[in-house]
Amino acid sequence: MSTPLLEVRDVRKAFPIVRGRSLRRSIGEIRAVDGVSLTLAAGETLGLVGESGCGKSTLARCILRLLEPTAGAVRFGGRDVLASSQRELRNLRREMQIIFQDPYGSLNPRMRVAQLVAEPLRVHAMTGGRHETRARVAELLSLVGLSPEHADRYPHSFSGGQRQRIGIARALASEPKLLILDEPVSALDVSSRAQILALLEDLQARLGLAYLFVSHDLSVVRYISQRVAVMYLGKIVELAPRDDLFGHPRHPYTQALLSAVPVPDPERERRRRRIHLPGEATADGALLEACRFRTRCPLARPACAEKEPPLRALGPPDHEAACFFPQTLAPM
Predict the structure, then answer these.
(1) C-alpha separations of 329 from 43, 221, 258, 298, 305 in Å
(2) What would the pLDDT profile of 243-275 be if each residue is shown by its tens digit?
(3) N or C: lower Cβ tally within 10 Å for the chain?
């Protein structure tokens, strides 16, 4: 088996809970990411899904060391990201880029498009003179479906979809191998969303990019991903190839998520069984010591409160779930 492009092992990120203004003291911690392991091959798209607050974006930032993980290991192309010096990290980040959720907030409004897209070229000294930089910016804008004439305009004069294209062009400037896409289409309208997804597919085919696609939108993840990881309260609770996960989900949380996605066929929609989960996801410390989904799970048994279920293989190739009693509640 070939070495994966990205390897994440038991990554954890805890944020302290502090009390007091002058004499601040820690009274606990929030485990935003709690022992996550995953791999990503070159040219592959791994979808990372879960409800808001489950730790998806925190994990993405830990992989890039935009946040320093509390524990764990991240290897990219065989290199240890967490042990890298700042100089080594700068070289690594040339090959790992992130595209943010908000195309309105991720671009500096005081900079022209040419300056925004050229910034990675300047930081990594990837072009020679001014004319070479200008030509490379024009090439990148054309690559994402924008006109080179847009280079002299400011971000406020573009639509949301166009701004996201500018963000993609900026990310591609350093010729990365991995793009981390943090909810890249959630702030866009339906037509712009479809266009950006089509663009990402085309870029992946042309450039051989690997994507870690973070989203809460299951329909988008189903469209673009080859494998899907489902996250709940800082843990991966199910990991499987896309078709297997959507066709035969094994973890009760995954089943509940999929049951909430509407289908366009009215007859089929009426026959579907919705799985309603009681309560809300909570990061209470006592809850995290065993199965963290047990208070909302329709299959919970006493054993679920005794220890935490490991992520384990369930028989189908590469299908894993963190559940002691995996089964299918209803056809998906």
Answers:
(1) 34, 22, 11, 9, 21
(2) 999 999 999 999 999 988 777 777 776 777 778
(3) N
